Amino acid sequence: MQREVDVVILGAGPVGENVADRVRAAGLEVVIVEHELVGGECSYWACVPSKVLLRSAAALRAAKRVPGAAEAVTGDLDVEAVLRRRDSWVSDWDDHGAVGWLDDAGIGLERGHGRLDGPKRVVVTRDGDDERDEAVTFVARHAVIVATGSDPVMPSIEGLAESSPWTSREATSVERPPARLAILGGGVVACEMATVFAGFGTEVVVLARSGLLGAMEPFVGDAVTAGLRGLGATVRTGVQATLVERTADGEVVLTLDDGSTVVADEVLVATGRKPRTDAIGLETVGLEPGDWLRVDEGMAVEGVPAEPSGENDSGSGTPWLYAAGDVNHRALLTHQGKYQGRAAGDLIAARAAGHPVDLAEWGVHAATADHVAVPQVVFAEPEAVAVGLTEAAATKAGRSVRTVEVSMTSASGAGILADGYEGRAKLVIDDELGTVIGATFTGQDVAELLHAATVAIVGEVPVERLWHAVPSFPTMSEIWLRLLEADGRPEARA
Ligand SMILES: Cc1cc2nc3c(=O)[nH]c(=O)nc-3n(C[C@H](O)[C@H](O)[C@H](O)COP(=O)(O)OP(=O)(O)OC[C@H]3O[C@@H](n4cnc5c(N)ncnc54)[C@H](O)[C@@H]3O)c2cc1C
Ligand SMILES: NC(=O)c1ccc[n+]([C@@H]2O[C@H](COP(=O)([O-])OP(=O)(O)OC[C@H]3O[C@@H](n4cnc5c(N)ncnc54)[C@H](O)[C@@H]3O)[C@@H](O)[C@H]2O)c1
């Protein structure tokens, strides 16, 4: 069967949904193809369940840090209740609600595995096998968007793949926390999952080949290492597993490169992601299966010739293949992928209607923030949040910068929030521009401080002007004032 529609989207994760929403809002006919659950990794095995699993123990720790509330905490974490709350947030891995949203928005859903079949053509099969199944072929009048996301990387460590390792999927959908968990990796998934399971009372060992959260300011890794140890986890850095074996008793034995061994009940692999592009027909449009999809500022895939596009085509052709979200490797974060999806959806609609497009820096159709201000919240113990450039990245990029760094306790709000509060804040300021280009905070509940930093960076607010953005007393936002004071009060203009 063959059907013509305006736009076809591969993958109904958060990013595919956002593209669909924008093109549908512009009146285009859109079909989204999904072979698993509408809502994607984020809703069922990543952001949502992981944050719900983290929240209860974080609330308990917060209560224990405040006299008066601490005395009222008389029991331990109710792990069963936490898991039930997680089940509710993932709707028991049922996508009825998300499908209802698609229906209400007038977005078509085709369940099955989608793959490209030459320019503007997508074949969908129920089980991914064209031969055995009746396939539906969609021909897109305007565009095909790949929003297929990413999968965990399985490092080639002897015996690992045969040891039934966990990935983030098993960890976020856990039904009975293991007594002992070994975690390979020192990135975001490793730190968040170590926080979850240590909070559950699991004996956690994190095995990281370098420090934790190496892409952030160095004090972040130190803080999270200390925080995890405070929860009873073991954090071993500078080590690598060389052999993994699942014994007849069901234990996992990991041999490390220093000759030592770690014994656990499960091993979680948290060593990064690879693109879900190996079976989506990239070869039919001249691209390499398994590669990340390189895109331009409007998410059009590079290296794919433009095609004529309806009556509004000027003759030179219009880009037709787009990639948004994890699959383009610009920023593996839901919010950033959705941002790309909104821009790309509007761009596709504008091109289809023959309207002007704006791909200039900060233009409505350009995902400029991907290069300048990607906010990330690591919901570990403690929280670690950052946006923009670290000092090291800015210096490497040849920027002339100065930095200011203060203790979070210099803001009264932090001290009131919790006794014994610990945390740091740092700004990276571009000397030439006189604006903030990077910000990092650690400590309890710093997540909500991050958006102010994102606004300052995206808005290119001069540091001088930030002195007029007065934080309320006694909130943690007063840390901004402390940071500005550390930078020095501006002198009057002559
Ligand atoms: C444990 C964990 C926690 C995370 N926590 C956060 C967080 O707190 N905040 C944050 O911003 N990010 C977080 N992330 C990252 C976030 O999950 C991803 O950035 C986000 O899911 C990417 O969205 P996406 O739509 O690009 O891909 P996905 O969410 O992976 O969705 C892609 C969809 O495409 C479908 N699909 C793939 N191939 C095909 C095909 N050929 N045919 C049909 N359908 C197909 C898949 O089934 C899936 O539904 C986390 C990641 C992990 C692993
Ligand atoms: N709160 C959030 O925003 C959130 C939470 C979880 C995941 N995510 C996103 O999901 C993505 C995946 O997270 P992740 O933690 O898997 O990846 P990551 O890139 O953050 O970290 C990967 C870690 O694995 C280590 N590593 C890589 N190969 C290894 C090997 N062969 N042996 C041992 N260690 C190895 C790296 O040194 C690094 O510490 C990230 O890009 C992250 O942004 C975001």
State the CATH topology of the largest domain: FAD/NAD(P)-binding domain
Total beta-strand segments: 21
| Small molecules in complex | flavin-adenine dinucleotide, nicotinamide-adenine-dinucleotide
| H/I helix tally | 15
- Contiguous uncertain segments of 5+ residues: none
InterPro entries: Class-I_Pyr_Nuc-Dis_Oxidored, FAD/NAD-bd_sf, FAD/NAD-binding_dom, FAD/NAD-linked_Rdtase_dimer_sf, Pyr_nuc-diS_OxRdtase, Pyr_nucl-diS_OxRdtase_dimer
GO biological process, one term: 2-oxoglutarate metabolic process
GO molecular function: dihydrolipoyl dehydrogenase (NADH) activity; flavin adenine dinucleotide binding
Family: Belongs to the class-I pyridine nucleotide-disulfide oxidoreductase family.
Task: Give an overview in words.
With 494 residues, the protein is α/β, with parallel strands linked by helices. It has 3 domains: 2-39 and 95-151 and 275-372, FAD/NAD(P)-binding domain; 161-271, FAD/NAD(P)-binding domain (3-Layer(bba) Sandwich); 382-493, Enolase-like, domain 1, CATH 3.30.390.30. Helix content is 30%, strand content 22%. The protein has helices spanning 14-25, 40-45, 47-64, 79-89, 96-105, 168-172, 188-200, 218-230, 334-353, 369-372, 391-396, 412-417, 450-458, 463-466, 479-487, and strands at residues 2-10, 30-34, 108-111, 113-116, 121-125, 136-146, 150-152, 180-184, 203-208, 234-237, 241-246, 252-256, 261-264, 266-269, 273-275, 321-323, 376-378, 384-388, 401-407, 424-430, 435-442. Strands 1, 2, 3, 4, 5, 6 and 16 form a 7-stranded mixed sheet that branches. Strand 1 (2-10), helix 1 (14-25) and strand 2 form a beta-alpha-beta unit. The longest helix is centred in the C-terminal third of the chain and has 20 residues, at 334-353. The termini are far apart. It binds flavin-adenine dinucleotide (FAD) and nicotinamide-adenine-dinucleotide. Nicotinamide-adenine-dinucleotide (NAD) binds next to helix 7 and strand 17.
